[in-house]
């Protein structure tokens, strides 16, 4: 598919360094270690996110080009204790500026480790998407780490809590990169947001 031609475009530290705000953009968010890189790579059949982890490309926003008018954006997962507080505040400010101003942004993919769902970071992203009405799709990652019944129970619980707290602009599914659980479902949502 289209995603096979995904290539690294630019690493932006601020909103004014972003590519032209036209076409379709989908952003990927997740607390560090939630499985965001693995999900991005699995969904695009590329090793995009390794690029994001190389030094010098750990800026605020990493843009990947799919075609002339479509991009994926890797947002920082600032859950690391290692990240200094001033840097976290810098990210938070510019992340909010990006999320609040980006016309081409069509949806937000949020990765949550199924064993640690709804972290403070996740709640912040949910609050923002609720306030702005931006569609959000949640991947409960590492679903292979739980037995199927337990994974399903967690899915229903998290789904219920999200419906109560944030409403129904949010969809959610199980996901596993190595076991390829939910890959097609996630690609369907992505394709829809990208106007494919
Ligand atoms: P990121 O920091 O959010 O980009 O997370 P990574 O994608 O780098 O994943 C963090 C760790 O979790 C790595 O050791 C991955 O191999 C592992 N991981 C990611 N996704 C899955 C998954 O679906 N299942 C399992 N079992 N491990 C995963």
Automatic annotation (TrEMBL):
GN (gene name): engB
Name used for this protein in its record: Probable GTP-binding protein EngB
Keyword presence, Transmembrane helix: no
HAMAP family associated with the record: GTPase_EngB (MF_00321)
A GO term, aspect molecular function: metal ion binding
Keyword GTP-binding: yes
Known function: Necessary for normal cell division and for the maintenance of normal septation.
Matches recorded under PROSITE patterns: G_ENGB
Stretches assigned to coiled coil: none
């Amino acid at each position: 598919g289209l995603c096979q031609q995904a290539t690294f475009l630019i690493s932006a530290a601020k909103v004014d360094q972003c590519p032209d705000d036209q076409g379709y953009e989908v952003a990927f968010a997740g607390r560090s270690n939630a499985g965001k890189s693995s999900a991005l790579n699995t969904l695009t059949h590329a090793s995009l996110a390794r690029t994001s982890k190389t030094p010098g490309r750990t800026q605020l926003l990493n843009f990947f080009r799919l075609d002339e008018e479509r991009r994926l954006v890797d947002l920082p997962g600032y859950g690391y204790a290692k990240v200094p507080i001033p840097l976290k505040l810098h990210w938070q400010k510019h992340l909010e500026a990006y999320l609040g101003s980006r016309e081409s942004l069509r949806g937000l993919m949020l990765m949550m480790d199924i064993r640690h769902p709804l972290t403070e970071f996740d709640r912040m992203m949910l609050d923002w998407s609720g306030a702005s009405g931006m569609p959000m799709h949640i991947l409960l990652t590492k679903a292979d780490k739980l037995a199927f019944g337990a994974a399903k129970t967690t899915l229903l619980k998290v789904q219920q809590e999200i419906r109560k707290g944030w409403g129904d602009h949010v969809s959610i599914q199980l996901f596993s990169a190595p076991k390829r659980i939910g890959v097609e479902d996630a690609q369907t949502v992505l394709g829809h947001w990208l106007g494919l």
